[in-house]
Write a structure and sequence with these properties.
The protein contains five helices and six strands. The protein is α+β, with helices and mostly antiparallel strands. A six-stranded mixed sheet has the order 1-2-5-6-3-4. The radius of gyration is 31 Å and the shape is elongated.
C-alpha cells in the first residue's frame, strides 16, 4: 500500500482522493444554502386580509364610517351605530378613495330575535335569511363594484389571480334608536376585493 502512494504521482493521487469528499461536501452545502435561501425569500405577499381589516377598522372607528357621530359635540362614538345616519352614499363620501376599484363592502346591521313564532322562523328560513336575526339596515360601500364582483364569489376557491375573495367579520355593537335608547345588535362586514398575487 505504501508503494502505491510513494513518489510524486502517488502523492498527487492521494491528495486527489482526499479532495473528493471535500468537494462533495462543498457541493452539498451549496445546494442546501440555495434551498434555504429560496425557502425564506418571499417575493409575493398576500395583503388581502390586511386591506380588509384596515377598511373594516376605518368603517368602525373612522369619522366617515358607520359609528355614531354627534354633530353638536363633534365626538365619534365607536361601536355605536345610528341607523338614521347609516347611508351608502355617505359612506362613499366619508371614506373617499378616488378611482376605488379595489375594495367594496356590504354592511349588515341585525339584532337577535328573542321572540318569534315557529311560522315566522320558517318564513325567514325559506326566504334565505338567518332565522335568528332581524335585519335592521343593509348598506354598501362602493356598491357599483360590489354588484359587479358579488356573482364572482361563487368561484372564490379556485386558484389563480383572476377572481375575487371576501372576508367576513361579525362584531357586537350598540344601535342607537331615534329616541336615543340603545339596543344590542351585530354588524356584519363582507369585504369583497380582487385576488392579489398569492404565495405559492
Amino acid at each position: 500500500m505504501m508503494r502505491l502512494f510513494s513518489g510524486r504521482k502517488g502523492i498527487m493521487f492521494f491528495n486527489f482522493l482526499v479532495m473528493i469528499p471535500r468537494i462533495l461536501f462543498l457541493v452539498i452545502m451549496l445546494i442546501v444554502c440555495v434551498i434555504l435561501i429560496r425557502m425564506f425569500l418571499n417575493d409575493k405577499f398576500n395583503i388581502n386580509d390586511v386591506q380588509a381589516e384596515i377598511l373594516i377598522d376605518g368603517l368602525i372607528y373612522g369619522t366617515g364610517g358607520v359609528s355614531y357621530y354627534d354633530p353638536v359635540t363633534g365626538r365619534l362614538y365607536p361601536e355605536i351605530i345610528d341607523i338614521s345616519q347609516l347611508d351608502g352614499a355617505k359612506l362613499d363620501q366619508g371614506l373617499f378613495y378616488p378611482e376605488n376599484h379595489m375594495m367594496t363592502a356590504r354592511i349588515l346591521v341585525e339584532k337577535p330575535i328573542t321572540e318569534y313564532t315557529d311560522m315566522s322562523l320558517m318564513d325567514r328560513y325559506f326566504r334565505g335569511e338567518d332565522p335568528k336575526f332581524l335585519t335592521l339596515k343593509d348598506v354598501y360601500y362602493n356598491k357599483v363594484w360590489y354588484d359587479n364582483w358579488e356573482p364572482l364569489l361563487v368561484f372564490k376557491n379556485l386558484g389563480g389571480i383572476g377572481g375575487v375573495i371576501d372576508k367576513n367579520m361579525r362584531l357586537p355593537v350598540l344601535v342607537r334608536e331615534p329616541d336615543g335608547t340603545l339596543m344590542t345588535a351585530y354588524v356584519n362586514f363582507q369585504v369583497v376585493q380582487p385576488k392579489a398575487l398569492r404565495s405559492r
